[in-house]
Amino acid sequence: ARNAAKLKARHIRRVNGEIIKTNSKLEYLLQVRPNPYMSAYDFLYKLISQLYDGHHNSFAYIQTENGEIKGFYPLSFSNLDLTEYAGELYCTFTFKTGFRMTVPYSELIHLRRHFNRHDIFGDEGLRPFKPTLNLINTVNQGIVNAIKSSARLRGWLKFSQTLSPEDLKKQRDQFVADYLSISNDGGIAALDAKADFNPVKLDTQMADDKQMAIIRENAYRYFGVNEKIIQATYNEDEWAAFYESVIEPLAIQLSLEFTEKCFTAREKGHGNEIIFEANRLQYASAKTKISLIKHLTPVGLLTINEGREIFNLAPVEGGDKRLISLNFVDADKANLYQLGDDADLGEGDDDGES
């Protein structure tokens, strides 16, 4: 959720194969403030964390006014019922306060995980993960019990004379009160000749490092992460693998769902889309960044500001221009340049020299 929440939403239009920026109010909502109570990062974080918390479904309500989208609200509910009326699906949410709300499915952003058994919802529950969860819980309890056991004096008392059951219990309770209480911080017991204390040695068994590593690895596999991702000690190749296997599928799912639910069929027909993207180069090494700018800028693949963004630098005025090297030529005119036939090059063409 921390990494997926860094995805940036953009409202674009595809016209004749070209992408046109829109800077619409919808883009502002998705990039800055989806609703008055949370930022765009908080909104995405909550949406993704709910998707992974065991329900494998997350919902956001699209608030509209006179046909215009005014906000997006992630829904935290206790129960959900799905009904169909007049050929349209409706979701009835019951919240923890007891409030109920019925919303057309077309007005909901719906993300799902493990979409398999049900026709609409992701497969709820943690059935494949429960054995690992139970094992982790058992290991944690074992560690706690081992710490408690090691802090206690355990054994049995042998008295030199025969005592009645009542006196035996009284002597035992007195011994516990005197020597096994918190006030006995020295851990030493003193007895006279009438009783002997025989300690009992406890051999506590706990999972070793290799077993713990296997348990953690099972958990990491279920969520598609590893220890380096969790601890943020990854390199650029490890981040790229994580992005492509976990973050990018979420970005695709978000893009398709927001595009479908935020635009009418007419608007989609005019090329309107919502895409979620990330600057993957932020996690590259300085050497990789320099190499990319060096090779991509001369062929016009990067603007000045795009190059500055790679190094987390602020944009500059006039930085949206694309610079290209004169050492490159249109492939269709390569032979003309080589032959030096200026008449066929056309006006405005140069000789390709820097």
How would you describe the overall organization of this protein?
The structure is a single chain. Strand 1 (8-15) and strand 2 (18-21) form a beta hairpin. A three-stranded antiparallel beta sheet has the order 2-1-11. It is 38% helix and 21% strand. The radius of gyration is 33 Å and the shape is elongated. The mean pLDDT is 81. The protein has helices at 25-31, 40-52, 130-150, 165-179, 209-223, 227-231, 236-262, 265-269, 286-296, 304-310, 334-339, 342-345; strands spanning 8-15, 18-21, 57-65, 68-74, 79-85, 88-94, 100-104, 108-112, 155-159, 195-199, 272-277, 299-303, 322-324. Helix 3 (130-150) packs antiparallel against helix 5 (209-223). The two termini are 48 Å apart. The protein contains twelve helices and 13 strands. The longest helix has 27 residues, at 236-262. It has 354 residues and is of the alpha+beta class.
Main beta sheet strand tally, sense and closure? 3 strands, antiparallel
Strand order of the largest sheet: 2-1-11
Helix/strand order: EEHHEEEEEEHEHEHHHHEHEHEHH
Strands, count = 13
Seen as an oligomer or otherwise, the chain set is: single chain
The helix content, as a percent range, equals: 25-40%
Cα shape: elongated
- What is the CA-atom radius of gyration, in angstroms? 33 Å
Helix/strand class: alpha+beta
Helix count equals 12
Q: What is the residue-mean pLDDT, rounded to a whole number?
A: 81
- Report the end-to-end length measured between terminal Cα atoms: 48 Å
Low-confidence stretches: none
* Beta-strand content bin: 15-25%
